[in-house]
Amino acid sequence: MNTGINVAAHLPQQDGSISLPGLQAPLAIHRDQHGIAHVEASNEHDAWFGMGYTCAQDRLWQMEWYRRRGTGRWAEVAGKPGLPADRLFRRFRLDDASRADVAELTAETLAMFEAYAAGVNAYVDSGQPLPPEYGLTGTPWERWEPWQSILVFKVRHAIMGKRLSKIARLEILARTSPETYALLEGIEPAGTNVILPPAGATSYARATSAEEARALAAALDTLAVSEGGSNSWAVHGSRTTTGKPVLCNDSHRPLDVPNVYWQAHVTCPEFNVAGAAFPGFPAFPHFGFNGDLGWNITHGQADYQDLWLEAFDPADPTRYRTEDGWAQAEVTRAEIRVKDGPAEPVTLVRTRHGDVVHGDPASGRAIAVRYTATDRPNRQWETLRPMLLAKTVPELHETQRGWEEPVNAILSADAAGNIGFLYRGRIPVRSSRAGSEFPVPGWTGELTWQGDVPFEQLPQSINPSEGFLGTANQRPTDADEPYLAHEFATPGRSTRIAELLQGDAVFTPQEIAEHQADTTSVRARGWAQFLATQGPFEGDAERARSLLAAWSGDLAAGSAAALLYACARVSLVEAVFRLILGEEAWAYIFSGENDNAPQHLSRWMYYLGERLPGSAATPDGRPWGEVLPAALAAAWARATELGGSEPAAWRWGEVHRTSAQHSLAAALPDLAAELNPPSVGVGGDSDTLQVAGYSSAPGTTFALTNLSVYRQVVDFAADEPATWIIPGGASGIPGSRHYADQLEAWRAHQRVPVHHAPERMRAAAATTLTLQPTDE
């Protein structure tokens, strides 16, 4: 039995001096009171070396986890439970794609990745302690290589895109009917929020007809194969009391342990940049501030993954059908080593369309994917250094011409007063829209990629007349060309940003930043207003209706109505959609086979709320007066079960809590209490700016599934322009004092200073470690 973790034995040296080969000059690593690393180098090579070294100090096991997941080797650590993910990632061949990318790097960019890897390896070579997870699992250390930095970036994004959404749509269609699918997709109305123009809206609804769905279902016959968000806004100086712009963001993802983003500050004569980095990856492609310019991203929700259903020859599953007859697939056989068990064979198959990632060719059917991160060498890494050197918003936009994957909405602001939005990334031009919602038949030749959308045609704006820009994963524009995607995030958060920022009002920087803590849901407010027009009912149903009808829609942590609303939302999802979908489709959505399937249910529920004003019945024609009483009574009972018998004592934040799990907590349950960080309660839900999503499955405990993992504010009028916070800590060493020391400040919507200016960085240093060069 495990007896505990000796934390002190695994903490890296952070004061004094260490001599290392590979450095060109002395290098200082300052750490502030939160343990956040500030690397001060006298040349660019050493800056990247120092970033790699400090990341190894803080997050080496997390880097190990990422690279083993990306190479399909997690079962070597976790045993048989790691096999399903290993099989999937082997099929993606992210390791092959990462090596291909490195082979295409220019000398300057390769030097950056090599110096970073050298810093990582120097940490271990110098005899500094490995994180405790290595000893707990018996995992050997393997040297870090430059291609693995690209791998850990790709592995964080391979699960994004439209792959799972398209498969979920197909599975739902197969379990319902074309008419039912068309009914559900037709719920989305026109008039949803877009990025450009700010506070603009779509002019028409996009839906699939029953005829289209029927044709698709007939073409595909049968099939047995089993995504993140963020907020960002930039306010121009014409709308602020200081006359200077303010840039805010919070990135939404599941809460990893350690946190997915690592705060870092790297300065040298060439640049001085602080921001959120991926552990194991140099530079700051998502969030950064260089003194003159700040930038952040939200997920663009673009469609850059197409899927083909391939028909394989039952007599020879290495052959697949095309419009010209059988073609030979590329087949590679390998094995996955499994801790405490025999190795598992894995067969990798590639067709003309791409790698088979779902299904088994031996069964006769499988799905191949073409994906911009793997279909050819990516050159986007050449944008990393130029963006650090950009001084203005227009300069930043120009540096992003080569960005490929994932597609992001990048917002920025500069000291000259500009604010900007750019939809960056590679989006294929297709021969048809056939694959926009589903996998398409691979044997017809009807869907091919014919180049990419030109950079100039991607949505972008600098200094719009409205004086602000806001992104929350919504549709970029109302235009239908170029094709960007069939679906985008529901517009609750983006609508709320527009509500708060549109018009002629002038705001203080503090007011602009405080919107990160906003817990008002436009959707909840709409339901409250609708319930005020219904009833009266009887008993618990009327008690629930009355409480919600008098509510503002603010899901504050201390709100009783917020808890009731969450329970009502879950019960209404079931009351409305279970009957429409039928038991087979309903069970599939919550089966865990496809993480994206429940998001379709949430999307339909959101747009159902859009249609509430004047609505008399559910989408399938049942009067609301027949549906609401039982659903509200069930919600009241569930809220009582969770919050107690006295409604005045209900508190949303006491139920709605973080539940971060270390990657080894399940495998080492005796140590789970030491491996997992503390839990805190928060307000909000998936529709509020303070994002705090939860499962909509019946019986949900409302534990957080998606939340803000990095908040950054840049106020160009402030003495300390940049501030940041994460729901965890800089260190990935369980039990260290910086493992979760930012969590409470994050919960309270406080931020800590970046200490960007070199003199501030040095003055704020709680520790300083000097790395001295030594002869090789």
Could you explain how this protein is built, in words?
By secondary structure, the protein is of the alpha+beta class. The chain contains 24 helices and 28 strands. The strands form five sheets. The chain has an eleven-stranded mixed beta sheet with strand order 1-28-2-3-6-7-8-9-17-18-22. Strands 4, 5, 23, 24, 25, 26 and 27 form a seven-stranded antiparallel beta sheet that branches. Strand 11 (316-322) and strand 12 (325-328) form a beta hairpin. Helix 1 (44-70) crosses helix 5, helix 9 (178-185) packs across helix 10 and helix 15 (522-531) crosses helix 16 (539-549). The longest helix is centred in the first third of the chain and has 27 residues, at 44-70. Residues 219-228 have low confidence and may be disordered.
Number of strands: 28
Determine the fraction of residues in helical runs and give it as a percent range: 25-40%
Summarize the biggest pleated sheet: 11 strands, mixed
**Strand fraction band?**
15-25%
Mean pLDDT, nearest integer? 94
Q: State the secondary-structure class.
A: alpha+beta
End-to-end separation in angstroms reads 43 Å
Q: Please work out how many helical segments DSSP would assign.
A: 24
Dominant shape: globular
Q: Unreliable stretches, pLDDT < 50, 5 or more residues?
A: 219-228
Order of adjacent strands in the largest pleated sheet: 1-28-2-3-6-7-8-9-17-18-22
Radius of gyration: 26 Å
* Multimerization status: single chain
